[in-house]
Amino acid sequence: MSEAAKKSDRKRLQPEERKDMLLESAVAYLRDHGIATLTMDRLAQNAGVSKPLMYNYFPNRMALLKAVLVREVNMRRARDAQIAKEAETLEDLIRMASRHTLEHIQARGNIIQQLLQEPEIAQVMTDMRSEARGGYVDYITKKACATYDLPPDIARVVVQLLMNMGTNAGALFDREKGDIDQAHDILLTLTTGAIEAAVRKYAKKPRA
């Protein structure tokens, strides 16, 4: 495509499309180069736009990074919600959600964990978790109570620990660049073992 055609194509983008394109370009940069070297100049160059155009959408680097975080978290949450609807059992939900986590990181890099290196961005994540994650945790906790006959307080702790296990597994998978099928199998094995141990110890009516 010629430079003139590229410029014409850029002009046809609506503001929200342009913003989405810039955020996706930021994700690609973070995946390939990391957060330390990201500047507004470099991102503008990476996205093929002018620096003034970048500032039309994001007043500074921190605002851009916060927008990337919110977008990535919302993408993950939307998929989690879809998985929760599709899964017929808690086992299905765990299997599908853990696989999605690894596939998402394989395709896009462990962007969220990179962003959380910035204290100001980490606070945004804390606020988002307090606003929305509780509902998802509550949903899975109820499933765990019904499926495994665990007391609600125990089930909630188990669910949150397993969610953190998935996050840490994703970070390790991204760092080691291992085989996704093997990583998923190991994660499921550890998750299943942890649940079985919790049921043996804490279920209201221990299984035979």
TrEMBL record:
Per its UniProt entry, which superkingdom is the organism in? Bacteria
Signal peptide extent: none
Mind telling me which InterPro entries this protein's record contains?
Answer: Homeodomain-like_sf, HTH-type_TetR-like_transc_reg, HTH_TetR
Recorded hits in SUPFAM superfamilies, A to Z, give: Homeodomain-like (SSF46689)
Q: Which GO terms describe its molecular function?
A: DNA-binding transcription factor activity; transcription cis-regulatory region binding
Q: Where is the HTH tetR-type domain?
A: 16-76
Its keywords, alphabetically, are: DNA-binding, Transcription, Transcription regulation
Instruction: Tell me the DNA-binding residue spans.
Output: 39-58
Keyword Ligase: yes or no?
A: no
> Which PANTHER family has this protein been placed in?
HTH-TYPE TRANSCRIPTIONAL REGULATOR BETI, HTH-TYPE TRANSCRIPTIONAL REGULATOR RUTR
Q: What is this protein called?
A: Transcriptional regulator, TetR family
Provide the species name: Candidatus Phaeomarinibacter ectocarpi
